[in-house]
Amino acid sequence: PKPPPVSHYNLNNVTVTANPLENRENILILTPMARFYQGYWDNLLRLSYPHELITLGFILPKTTEGNTATTALQKQIARTQKSGQEKDRFKSIIILRQDFDPPIQSQDESERHKMKNQKIRRAGMAKARNSLLFSTLGPATSWVLWVDADVVETPPTLIQDLARHNQPVITPNCYQRYWNPETKEMDERAYDFNNWQDSPTAQDLAKQMDPDDILLEGYGEMATYRTLMAYLYKEDGLLHEEIPLDGVGGATLLVKADVHRDGAMFPPFSFYHLIETEGFAKMAKRLGWQPIGLPNYKVYHYNE
Ligand code: GDP
Ligand code: MN
Questions:
Q1: How remote is the CA of residue 103 from the centroid of ligand 1, in Å?
Q2: Residue 11 lies in a domain
């Protein structure tokens, strides 16, 4: 019998350019998912980047809630991939179930955002992201787009718009729509505070910390005076204005696959007193890749 064939991939030929569409570059969209939101799936379907160049990867916890989300996700996948229109179908889809229990059972916003729960929760999130990344990144992947399962609205041209900046790590501004009881109208507010520029105060705080302790953003008990991209949005600003970032969130994050291949991952431990996506930004920087934020380019988080 013939020996099994050997596959050769020359990573130099996997282009990562400002015009991925023209160059037919493969995108891997990765989503850690604790809950399924229809708005997330509908938004994915609306992405105008050719779906035949998109692979989807999911990781879900093995909890009751995770089981419910997996069932809902699989139902939508079947609809799109089997009975849906040809143009809606994605190249391939991978679903992983976590091999460890989430450290915090409750996914309710009040519980998961408690400061005392953060380190252990973010470490669990980091491990979920790493498992997903290392199990799905392929030799032909040009870009990795991280999209959280509760991001329910982005421009359909999201991939093209972010890629055209040709940056190693780039993130839009994550907002949230809500009902404003004062104006009695729909309104919006800043949501993701993990996109920031560092401050001397935060640096000083870090210096006084134990090696295993981490800095957290968005908690009054730990005022960092970092510059938060969430508050830099300007209505009359240029849509594609860029700013350098020292910390990033994972809600929507486009990463050149080479950055991950170089070894940038999501530290599930204190890395320069940073963890998960914020630690990832630091690791990318240490590898020579400067993360970039787009303060005037918005995506929207679900309102629980
Ligand atoms: P927040 O927006 O900062 O409150 O963070 P989320 O709780 O929304 O978590 C970010 C993303 O990770 C979302 O897509 C969640 O559905 C997902 N997620 C949260 N906890 C877990 C977990 O334990 N396991 C997995 N696989 N995904 C999770
Ligand atoms: Mn979220």
A1: 12
A2: no
